[in-house]
Structure formats: C-alpha cells, structure tokens
Amino acid sequence: MKFKISSFKEPKHVGAVSCVGWNNTEDVFSCGDDHKLLKWNLVSGECLVITTFPEDFYPICLHLFPKINLGGNKHNDVILIACADGKFHIMNNNGRIEKSVNAHQGACLAAQWSPDGAGLLTAGEDGFVKIWSRNGLLRSTVIQSDVPCYSAIFNSDSSAILYTKGNSLVIKHLNSSSKTTKWKAHEGVILCVAWNANNNLILSGSEDGYSKIWDQFGQQISVSVKHDQPITSVSWSPAGDMFVIGSYNLIRLCNANGWSHCLERPSTGSIYSIVWSSDGTQLAAACANGNVLFAHIIEREYAWKNYTCTQTGRKVISIKDIITDQNDQLDYPDRVIQIALGFNHLVTATVKQCFIHKLTSWNTPVTFDLKEGTISMILLAERCICVIERAGISVYSYMGRLLASPRCSRPETLGRAAVSLGPDALALIDQSDRKIIQVFDLPTGLIVRSSTDNTVTKLIHKMTVSSIALSQSGPINERQIALLDYNRDLYVVTVKDSKPKFVKLGSQILSICWSAETELLVGLRANSAVAWCCPRAAYKSDWLALTTVTKDITDLGRNPSLLSVEDGVACICRGNGSRTHISLASFPEKLLKHVDANMWQDALQVGMDGIKKCLISKMLKIIHIIGSFAGPLKMKLSGLVSLFWLGNTTSSRLRRKHLL
C-alpha cells in the first residue's frame, strides 16, 4: 500500500498554504497567506478563486460543517476559519462572511465544528478553550491555561474535548462529573492532535519529532520512530484503520497499530494541515511552499484462499489466481473507494455503483446504485452483503436485491470492531451505550427476538464492549456472538436463547475471529493463539479445557491481530505489519465440517486418522462434546465415540450404542 501523489506544477497560492478542507469527495477548499480562498476540483483539474479576503486576514485553521443533513440543506454548507488576529469567521461556500467573532487574545490556533453541528470550539494563543453556539454566540469558557493551546478537538459525541497543554494532553468531559484526564505525552510541545470516532484512539504529534497513539485513558499504544523535524500535522482516516503524519518535506502513511505503510518526501516544505476525504481513499495537504498536495491510496491488497486482489489505479483492480497463475484486470467507470473479497465473490464500490463479481465470471457483475458516494465499509457473509455509508446501513443479496435497511444513528462512525455480519444476522454495538449489542435478523431487518420471549431485543453486557463477532455457520437458532470487553475478557452468548447467558471463555484476548465454515473460534493473546473448538461447551466448565487448543507464538510484536481462520489455520498480522500463518486446529476443523454436513462416514475416517496420530485422548473428548450438541444426531456421534473406546472396554452398553 502506498500513496500516489499529485500536485500542480506551479503553486496556485502565493506564500504558505495554512489549511485545507474537503467539501465532498471531489472538491477541496484551501486558504493561505495570500488571503485567497481557492476551490479545487479533482475530476476536472480546475482551480477557482472563490474570494479574496482583506489584507489583514491570515488563516490558521479551516473546518467545513459536518455532513449530517442528508437532505442537502444549503444552510449547512458553511466554512469555519480561524485567523491569526484572534477572530474566527463563519462563511458560506461562496466566500461571503456571515459572522465574525473576536474570540481570543493573540492568534486563534484551532477551530472545529462539533460532530453533531450544534456548536463549535476554538482554542487560542491565550490558553483559552471556548465553546460557541452554531451562530457564534459564546456558551462557555471551558479551559483557562497559562500556555498556548495549539490544538483542540471534540470526541465523537461532543461529550468531551481533547486539548494540548505544553507537552501534555488533557481530556475534559463537558456534561458529566467525570474527572479530567491529563498525562505527559511528549518531551516537546505538542503541535497537533487527532481523535478518531471509530476506534476512539488519540494521535499526537510534537516538536520532539515523534508521533504517538494513545487510548482515551492516556495509555500509550504505539510510538513512531524519531523524525528529523517536528511533526506539524496528523490525521486519522475516517475508518480508523490508518493515519498520516506530516513534517518538513515528509508525509508518512501508517497502520492504526503504528507501523509504516509508506514514506514520501515531496519538496513542499512543512505540511501544516492534512485532511482525509470522507471515503478514506484520498487526502489533501496544505504546504509551506504554496502547493496543495493531493494523494490517493493505491496497491492496497486483499486475499481470500487462492485469490489475490490489488487496486493498481483509481479505477483499476488486478485479480490473480495463484494456483492457475491466471491474471485479470477489471476497469470501472468511476473511482473505486471500497473493495471486499471473500465467500467466492469480489465486491467493489465506486462513487456511484456497487459491483458484485463471482470468482468464476469476472466480466458479468451484478450492479446496483448507491444511495450516496461515501461508503465507509463493506462486509461479506455466506449469503449477503452489508454496505455501510453515511446515508445508512443496507444489506443486499449477492444478486443485488435489497434485503434489509437496519436503522442506526450516524452509521459512518461504526468501526469494523463494532459491527459483524453473519449469514442471517447483523450485529452492532450501540454507539450511545457500548454495553448494548443489537442483533438484526435478516432479511427482515427486525431485531432478533427470542423464540420464546418476544420482548428480548438487545443483548446487554456488564462491561463496555470493544469488539464483536458473529459465528458464520449453523442454523439461526444456534447463532452465537463472541465479544471482547474493555478488560480484554472474551465472552460468548447464543443470540436466540430465551435468557441469553454471557459465558466467559478467556482473558487477556487481543483479537478474535470465527472460522468462515465452522463454529471454531480463535483468539489471540500477546504470546499465544487459542482455538475453542466448541464454544458452546463453555456452558459446562469441565468441558471447556477439553475443547481448547493453545499454541505459543513468539515475536508477535505489539497489538497483533487475527485476519482470518480457514481449515484450522489462523492468519495473523504481527505488530510490525508482517503476516504469519499458524496451524491450530486442523483436526477439529475437519471434524466440525463433516458434522455440519452430516457426513458421518467421513467424520469416522477423520477420527480413525486421529487415532493413528496419537490424538486418542483429546480427540475422543472433543468428539463426545461436539456430539452432545448435535441435536437429533447425538446418538450417531455417541456411536462414533464408542467405536474408539470399543477396544479398551468390555461395556455392553457401549457395544450396543456402537451398533446403533
């Protein structure tokens, strides 16, 4: 994965460009020391001068009103600009100033609309942080400090603000009695911060040349290598899976865990501001030499079984079958913004349409139009596709038919850890109360209800939930959901139970993933991987250890993650970005596949092979436990167990059971 950078040969601004902002995925506004507001169109390549401000107008920060009104109300198309004279200005897209407010003594260093558009905040050289109404009326002065505040930002629900104070970061809660959180983050003055709505992680950049990632409690997640120059700008991608940092003649793209994807060294001077487009595929940067730098991501790779997929251009995807060495190139009419590969399909979303390709026939895709060109995520399951965009959540069949449109407030803020798609259900972590998990039945889109109690609509955990995953096999009445809470404890619960019970499987789990074909659940610890071959066995504590396989792993690094589980082999992304494959539970995976398919003779053969490999004790216990959950076919598996025990026992009961 890397950037493809483009810019005009000659700078359109005279002097430094201090700030940029995206109006949509095609138009960018920029403002600089030449007092001009420019509008760039990335499709036509045009650059228009919107207006020229007075000579004493020196902008520092620019922020466009959040796109929360899907009706396209022009009243919301306004721009907030903070200036060096301590004022902030609210203006429309034509450059006409509607409101000017003298906010600070000295420069107004930061200004931002709240995510819900109800107000705005400013931070100044005088050390004050203030909250204003949408129309520019002062509501409160929340911070009074004796040092300049170089950056301040709202959290995702506007309930708290993060601001800088010298070399420290401070989180101030606005509407509660929660204690203010403050910690020393850098050795030098902190110049820039970013707080992602999806992963709730904080990114900071400082004069000491380091960028660091923190959680909301001030715990350090990762730290970058030391750069030669101060970090002047940082920005999270909307999905929270990547971030970018800017410095003098430097722009670096990094994974959310901190390791670097690519490093570019354009001759631009210091990069004062970096902003992602809403679809997370391109960015704009304000540069000290008068240029506005544009970059989009290419060579992003996806893999599923023997297929690999690489986006080689804005509108081009390359597909390869590594077994037959067959290559195909797919060209699209519009810019590609999201790709998903799995379950024998390739799903590609452009700014206007979604294309569904079968792996056996690339050239005849199923297409459907998108509600809006801002897609944040595509999820695949065995029988359906989930498309998450700012306009809402939509679930489609692989034939392009709309199955359901579950309701969710601000779906664009959902991260991958907060949503999971199964073959017949969609699970979401409630963004207003993260202890609650909502599970929607498909294709109706109604909340899953217990088969015996129609009042059960939500799953409520005792702790805040950080990650969820739905099982991918089995009937709907046996659908399970695994969850990780903020204590890193792993629980599993059956969605359709009349009285759902959260059963703990393990602790200190960093990442979880279900097998795509069976009920095998894999969890990752700091130095080991754990496979639960039959998670439902956890309801009987003495059985849990018998169906658990653990393998020690070294050199995983910090914050490793599980990518997939296939045929008992787990694909793991190490802390440095490299991938490794670990064989955990190939025997239980094969056995589970045969059980699900009612292929008992094959299950018997797998069992006999296990005996030959000296897996007798473990295998018999696993088979016996799986058999106890096999419903009407329980006796057949019990007979399988008795066959293995037949040579070691004279019990007539086991002999009779075997004959059945």
Structural overview:
The chain is mainly β and 660 residues long. Among the domains are: 16-297, 7 Propeller (Methylamine Dehydrogenase, Chain H), CATH 2.130.10; 523-660, no CATH class. 9% of the residues lie in helices and 45% in strands. It is built from 6 helices and 55 strands. The chain has a 4-stranded antiparallel sheet with strand order 1-28-27-26, with no helix packed on it. It has a 4-stranded antiparallel sheet with strand order 2-3-4-5, with no helix packed on it. Strands 6-7-8-9 form a 4-stranded antiparallel sheet, with no helix packed on it. A hairpin with a 4-residue loop joins strand 31 and strand 32 (326-331). Helix 2 (586-596) packs parallel to helix 4. The longest helix has 13 residues, at 600-612. The radius of gyration is 27 Å and the shape is globular. The relative contact order is 0.06. Mean pLDDT is 86; it is low at 449-456 and 632-660. This is (African queen) hypothetical protein. One of its GO terms (biological process) is cilium assembly. WD repeats lie at residues 101-133, 183-215. One of its GO terms (cellular component) is cilium. Keywords: WD repeat.
Brief overview, please?
The chain has 660 residues and is mainly beta. Helix content is 9%, strand content 45%.
What is the residue-averaged pLDDT? 86
**Helix coverage percent of residues?**
under 10%
Poorly predicted regions: 449-456, 632-660
**What is the distance, rounded to the nearest whole angstrom, between the alpha carbons of the first and last residues?**
58 Å
Q: Which percent band covers the strand fraction? A: over 45%
* Helical/strand content category: mainly beta
The CATH C-level class name of the domain at 16-297: Mainly Beta
CATH topology of the domain at 16-297: Methylamine Dehydrogenase, Chain H
For the largest sheet, list the strands in their spatial order: 1-28-27-26
- Rounded to the nearest angstrom, the radius of gyration is 27 Å
CATH architecture call of the domain at 16-297: 7 Propeller
